[in-house]
Design goal:
Layout: H1 3-13, H2 15-49, H3 51-77, H4 103-118
Helix pairs in contact: 1-2, 2-3
Protein backbone atom coordinates (compact mmCIF):
# COMPACT_ATOMS: atom_id res chain seq x y z
CA UNK A 1 0.00 0.00 0.00
CA UNK A 2 1.36 3.41 -0.93
CA UNK A 3 1.93 6.18 1.56
CA UNK A 4 -0.87 8.19 -0.03
CA UNK A 5 -3.38 5.36 0.45
CA UNK A 6 -2.28 4.89 4.06
CA UNK A 7 -2.74 8.60 4.76
CA UNK A 8 -6.21 8.54 3.16
CA UNK A 9 -7.25 5.50 5.18
CA UNK A 10 -5.92 6.99 8.42
CA UNK A 11 -7.52 10.39 7.91
CA UNK A 12 -10.87 8.84 6.96
CA UNK A 13 -10.82 6.57 10.00
CA UNK A 14 -9.76 9.36 12.37
CA UNK A 15 -11.39 12.56 11.13
CA UNK A 16 -10.59 14.40 14.34
CA UNK A 17 -6.88 13.84 13.67
CA UNK A 18 -7.29 15.12 10.11
CA UNK A 19 -8.98 18.21 11.50
CA UNK A 20 -6.10 18.62 13.93
CA UNK A 21 -3.58 18.54 11.09
CA UNK A 22 -5.56 21.19 9.21
CA UNK A 23 -5.57 23.40 12.29
CA UNK A 24 -1.85 22.77 12.79
CA UNK A 25 -1.22 23.99 9.25
CA UNK A 26 -3.08 27.22 9.97
CA UNK A 27 -1.37 27.70 13.31
CA UNK A 28 2.05 27.17 11.75
CA UNK A 29 1.29 29.56 8.89
CA UNK A 30 0.08 32.34 11.18
CA UNK A 31 2.85 31.69 13.71
CA UNK A 32 5.40 32.09 10.93
CA UNK A 33 3.87 35.37 9.80
CA UNK A 34 3.71 36.60 13.40
CA UNK A 35 7.33 35.61 14.11
CA UNK A 36 8.60 37.36 10.99
CA UNK A 37 6.69 40.54 11.82
CA UNK A 38 7.67 40.47 15.49
CA UNK A 39 11.35 39.59 15.11
CA UNK A 40 12.32 41.02 11.73
CA UNK A 41 14.75 43.55 13.24
CA UNK A 42 16.63 40.89 15.20
CA UNK A 43 16.55 38.55 12.23
CA UNK A 44 18.05 41.17 9.94
CA UNK A 45 20.83 41.96 12.44
CA UNK A 46 21.62 38.25 12.80
CA UNK A 47 21.56 37.82 9.03
CA UNK A 48 24.06 40.68 8.46
CA UNK A 49 26.75 39.03 10.63
CA UNK A 50 27.38 36.24 8.11
CA UNK A 51 25.26 36.78 5.02
CA UNK A 52 26.25 33.63 3.12
CA UNK A 53 25.81 31.11 5.92
CA UNK A 54 22.74 32.77 7.41
CA UNK A 55 21.09 33.03 3.98
CA UNK A 56 21.43 29.28 3.59
CA UNK A 57 19.93 28.77 7.05
CA UNK A 58 17.03 31.14 6.31
CA UNK A 59 16.24 29.47 2.99
CA UNK A 60 16.38 26.02 4.61
CA UNK A 61 14.06 27.19 7.41
CA UNK A 62 11.65 28.67 4.87
CA UNK A 63 11.63 25.48 2.79
CA UNK A 64 11.03 23.40 5.93
CA UNK A 65 8.21 25.70 7.02
CA UNK A 66 6.49 25.55 3.62
CA UNK A 67 6.96 21.77 3.49
CA UNK A 68 5.38 21.36 6.93
CA UNK A 69 2.41 23.62 6.14
CA UNK A 70 1.72 21.83 2.86
CA UNK A 71 2.25 18.44 4.49
CA UNK A 72 -0.20 19.22 7.29
CA UNK A 73 -2.72 20.45 4.73
CA UNK A 74 -2.26 17.31 2.65
CA UNK A 75 -2.89 15.04 5.64
CA UNK A 76 -5.86 17.16 6.71
CA UNK A 77 -7.51 17.11 3.31
CA UNK A 78 -6.74 13.48 2.43
CA UNK A 79 -10.10 12.31 3.79
CA UNK A 80 -11.88 14.00 0.87
CA UNK A 81 -11.99 12.59 -2.62
CA UNK A 82 -12.86 9.30 -4.23
CA UNK A 83 -11.20 5.97 -3.56
CA UNK A 84 -10.21 5.57 -7.20
CA UNK A 85 -8.67 9.05 -7.38
CA UNK A 86 -4.96 9.00 -8.09
CA UNK A 87 -2.57 10.25 -5.46
CA UNK A 88 -0.44 13.35 -5.78
CA UNK A 89 -2.14 14.68 -8.90
CA UNK A 90 -0.94 18.12 -9.81
CA UNK A 91 -2.20 20.63 -12.26
CA UNK A 92 -0.92 20.17 -15.81
CA UNK A 93 0.40 23.67 -16.32
CA UNK A 94 1.61 24.27 -19.85
CA UNK A 95 1.82 20.58 -20.76
CA UNK A 96 -0.79 19.74 -23.37
CA UNK A 97 -1.72 23.37 -23.91
CA UNK A 98 1.04 24.37 -26.30
CA UNK A 99 -0.09 26.67 -29.07
CA UNK A 100 -3.38 27.52 -27.41
CA UNK A 101 -3.85 31.09 -26.25
CA UNK A 102 -4.33 31.22 -22.48
CA UNK A 103 -3.87 27.42 -22.35
CA UNK A 104 -1.95 27.47 -19.08
CA UNK A 105 -4.61 29.69 -17.53
CA UNK A 106 -7.37 27.30 -18.65
CA UNK A 107 -5.48 24.31 -17.21
CA UNK A 108 -5.01 26.13 -13.91
CA UNK A 109 -8.67 27.18 -13.82
CA UNK A 110 -9.81 23.61 -14.50
CA UNK A 111 -7.51 22.36 -11.74
CA UNK A 112 -8.84 24.91 -9.24
CA UNK A 113 -12.44 23.98 -10.08
CA UNK A 114 -11.68 20.33 -9.38
CA UNK A 115 -9.95 21.19 -6.12
CA UNK A 116 -13.00 23.21 -5.08
CA UNK A 117 -15.30 20.28 -5.85
CA UNK A 118 -13.08 17.91 -3.93
CA UNK A 119 -13.10 19.95 -0.71
CA UNK A 120 -16.79 20.75 -0.43
Amino acid sequence: MTVCKEIKNFSRAHEHMADLFSVLALVLLFATVWAVLEYHQLLLEWWRHNIVLNSVILVAALVLDVFLVLGFLAVGSARFGDDDERCFGTFRGRRGTLGKPFGAFRAWLHHMENVGKKHR
